[in-house]
Design goal:
The chain is an alpha+beta fold. Helix content is about 10%, strand content about 25%. The chain is built from 3 helices and 7 strands; from the N terminus they run αββαβββαββ. The chain has a 5-stranded antiparallel β-sheet. Strands 3-4 form a two-stranded antiparallel sheet.
């Protein structure tokens, strides 16, 4: 196994300003809203792998982003950089997550993808 096997695919933002790994949220372990059951859109109890938005895909929605950009398949909305989201100031989130691309998933949770920056949404930049 590599480090990427243990790295979260997404960080979910809670109303108390905590960031939770997709392994806790998508698996159903943490949010009471999911009733301790995995999200029906999860892959192996994780957020599905990013996909490139394709306007010819029947499920493509411009609310997810522009063609060619990376997006979680379970996202219904791209909302810019986390830094642009008004809520981030009252949540006191770490500086390093602020330039990440903010999404809302089909379960209405807000999330960012580590390495997916809003100013370069066509590639995932992972630490070495």
């Amino acid at each position: 196994m590599t480090n990427s096997d243990f790295s979260p695919r997404a960080l979910f933002i809670s109303s108390d300003g905590m960031l939770y790994s997709d392994s806790l949220i998508c698996s159903g372990l943490l949010p009471a809203k999911l009733g301790n059951k995995p999200c029906p859109f999860a892959e192996g109890r994780h957020m599905p792998k990013l996909r490139r938005l394709d306007p010819t895909d029947p499920q493509y929605d411009p609310a997810q982003g522009k063609p060619g950009e990376l997006c979680p398949p379970c996202a219904v909305l791209h909302a810019g950089a986390l830094d642009d989201w008004e809520e981030h100031e009252k949540l006191h989130l770490p500086e390093e997550v602020l330039p990440l691309r903010l999404f809302q998933c089909r379960q209405a949770f807000w999330l960012v993808v580590p390495g997916l920056y809003n100013d370069d949404p066509t590639r995932l930049i992972l630490p070495q």
